[in-house]
Amino acid sequence: MEPRINLLANELGAKISKRIYNVSLAIQQSPLPRTVQDLVMLRASQINGCGFCVDYHSKDAAAAGETAVRLNLVAAWRESTVFTAAERAALALAEEGTRLADAHLGVSDGTWAEVREHYDDDQTVALVSLVAMINAANRLGVIVRNPGGSYEPGMFASMAP
Asked: Where is the Carboxymuconolactone decarboxylase-like domain (predicted)?
């Protein structure tokens, strides 16, 4: 499968992509644990069917030391025992925040209460922003049909300011 357009090869696409990357970098540098960030990005990408993003986030998580067992169970996290209560709250928020268009009623009060039990204000802001940003990135990838399989960890480091 070939992408419909290479956003990074287009001047405007590259400019927009760099700004998205910089927002993502601010989230990455937040106090939200990197492991949680990786799990949330992977789960939202799975739901949205973004092959490139699933490739990207699973490889980055593995490179950061995430285990194959946990990566393989992200899609079935509700039926697994390998995630902490805090990770489960973040994954629930990721799913509910991602499925807004599926006639979902948004993020439930129960999920929000779980998130607030495990994350402080800065971590919650980072988590909510992360869900929004990964969904935007997934939509870009799906619309232009960016295929998965070619990502190498660190390949976008040159986009950093």
From this structure: 27-96
Q: What is the pLDDT of residues 17-63, one digit of tens each?
A: 999 989 999 999 999 999 999 999 999 999 999 999 999 999 999 99
- pLDDT at 101 (0 to 100): 83
Minimal CA–CA distance to 57: which of 161, 159, 135, 144?
A: 135
Closest CA to 54 of 63, 42, 39: 42
Query: In b/e form, how buried is each residue of 68-81, taking b as 16+ CB within 10 angstroms?
Result: eebbebbeebeeee
> Which two tokens mark 150?
């070619």
Identify the sign of the CA torsion 161, 131, 80, 57. Answer: negative
Number of H helices, E strands in the chain: 7, 0
Instruction: Tell me the pLDDT band of 95, cut-offs 50, 70 and 90.
Output: very high
- List the chain domain ranges: 34-151
Residue 65's region, left for phi above 0, alpha for psi from -120 to 50, else beta, is left
Q: Contact 69/117 with Cβ under 8 angstroms?
A: no
Residue-averaged pLDDT of the chain: 94
